Amino acid sequence: MVCAAVVVPGLLRSSAGTVCTPAASLRLTASALRHLTLASIMKSKRKTDHLERTANVVRREMVSAAKVCGAADESPSVKRLRLRVADKDFSFKAGQWIDFFIPGVSVVGGFSICSSPRLLEQERMIELAVKYANHPPALWIHNQCTLDSEVAVRVGGEFFFDPQPADASRNLVLIAGGVGINPLLSILRHAADLHRERAHRGSGYEMGTIKLFYSAQNTSELLFKKNILDLVNEFPEKIACSLHVTKQTAQISADLKPYITEGRITEKEIRDHISQETLFYICGPPPMTDFFSKQLENSHVPKEHICFEKWW
């Protein structure tokens, strides 16, 4: 579940292996989508609700039908979903979230997309990773969701990275805590796609370097480890990561050990990456986002170069 609290500069604008059914089989009609959306909005009244927390955040008007076509455990507490969105007008920017409407569930979920826009363009797929919680949408995903379950989605959020080809090259520092990795993984994957596009075509946006700092309690709760390290190995001169664990008790595997630091992400680590060409994206628990955004401001990083989102 996410709630945006963000400063956005002008520039900032793993498959589950299941074959998805054709677009024609998405049976939610336009009238059914409208009914589902209106009913959920009217019934979703708790102060902790995603819709209330994000009431003043920019979101698209269009609600699109989606079908679950893949599900897998990403960690002991996080389930990964792959959704097929057949609507060709549905699009998102790397880092944004979706309103998640579930038939029969009155509360609307809010989940960050962790896949890249390129996956949607090529396969009409988006991916989510949802942590177990007593919140009705999360409970449904963990306990009731099945292949071919039908839902509806709507894109929103002001936390994104969407450079245009002629924009100045920027470095990125991504700071994630727990499931706050989701929007940052989307941005990381998008940056990798931009690298590939420029290498293949010789044109397009020129990405600078990307450094990911990612903290969780232990290595089993570090999500998307393989995906992240695959990108680090594919672009060793462009992408780097520092994975932090705060309550590790088990032995750390040999393949992860070079990237692991025991203890929290420190202010000095972040400060070492400050430059005029660097944008900072932060997503995690509110105390973490508050701490690093304040530290960056105190280090004279322009506010328009700091973009953050809190999750609950």
UniProtKB/TrEMBL annotation:
UniProtKB keywords: NAD, Oxidoreductase
Sequence ranges assigned to domain FAD-binding FR-type in this UniProt record: 50-164
A single cellular component GO annotation: mitochondrion
Residues in the signal sequence: none
GO MF terms, alphabetically ordered: oxidoreductase activity
Pfam families, A to Z: NAD_binding_1
Protein name according to UniProt: Oxidoreductase NAD-binding domain-containing protein 1
InterPro entries (alphabetical): FAD-bd_FR_type (IPR017927), FNR_nucleotide-bd (IPR039261), Oxidoreductase_NAD-binding (IPR052128), OxRdtase_FAD/NAD-bd (IPR001433), Riboflavin_synthase-like_b-brl (IPR017938)
